[in-house]
Amino acid sequence: MNDIVRRPRHENTLRAEIAEVLNVFSKSITAEDIAFSIARSVCNLTRARSVVYVAAINGVDDNSPVAIGTYGSSAMFLDYEYWRATTAEGMNFGTFKSVAESFGWKDMDSEYILEPKDSISEGAKLYCRKISDGYGIFLGYLCIESAFDPFEYSGFDDALLVMSIGALRYFQAQGKYGSHSVILQKIIHDFNGSMSVIGLQNELLKLKSNIENHFVEAQERIKSALKKADSSVRSLNEFSHLFYPESADETSNFTASLPGIALNAAFCSLTLNPEQIAKIHVSNSVPEFDRVRVQGVVLYWIYRALLNAWAHPFLGTESKELEVFVDLKKTEGENGFVDLSISRGSVKHRDVWLDMNEAPAYGAILNQVKLIPPVIILEKMINLFGGLLIIEKTESARTMSIRFPIYEEQY
Fold it and tell me: What's this model's pTM, rounded to 2 decimal places?
């Protein structure tokens, strides 16, 4: 069978690939970590020999830094990685352009195909394209060494989803990575605060004091601090369950996870200011130990993406924060579900970004790579992992709901 014949990839394979990428995103502490993960995944999904993925993370001037991920083993890429590791100038647009020009890619707004040379694997070519979003915003470059045109290969659709998720991660991170560390630091900070209160009150109890009810007040403070410390330990246990599950459902290849924990972790990792937090109203009516059929890390990232999109202003002109209502609820019955619904008032400019009917075209088009719009990414992710996205709108309000089936243990 020809390599470019449309042969659907098994969903389990794509789910595993996406889950692995999201796991790396959770642990990554640099933009390069994320770029490497994207390059590796694109290489696997397009059956390529080697891949270079370049992300524009801070401007487009020659001195602007770029995040570059490489994956493969051809001589050309080994030479490039050696040069990258030894250069004293660091990686920016200027240095990357000099490398591109050295192998003939001079007009980097246009597609470039490098014919076979000694540095390219036998029977392969190097296919290079510019990456942008559907609105024309420049996001980077993609170079793929392959025995066939990867942009015409059916597997490129899956690679496009990975790159689009990665671009969304860069946009949301704003230069700050490491979701695991952010959540852990908050838990450790709370725990240390509780231990400090207990230690201080214990010392005060040793001192003589004429203050009325001194011992009673100190004991109450210690009791309150112990309660907070217990909450921190519980949060640490929840964190462990979310990112390091103890078991999987062997019959469906899904890991069951607790939606309440995923929602708490998503809130912990978002950089919300006090004004934004005050405008978010959360309701959770899902029983504490009810699980849904989806991996914890996947559920966390889906919840995080939705919260980030609906709680943050998209444009600088939107200075007024909106009231946002977050409702985690369960539907009863034989085929029960857990829904995360987020509602707010209508905002003309912001709603365009969240309207599927307004989403621009995407794919390997116009000799470029056009990434998938965020709202389409969210829908594809939810559908891939067995969920459903529901959008409701009126003239004055918008509601978006994410639904996943409840996990029922088999006895």
Answer: 0.81
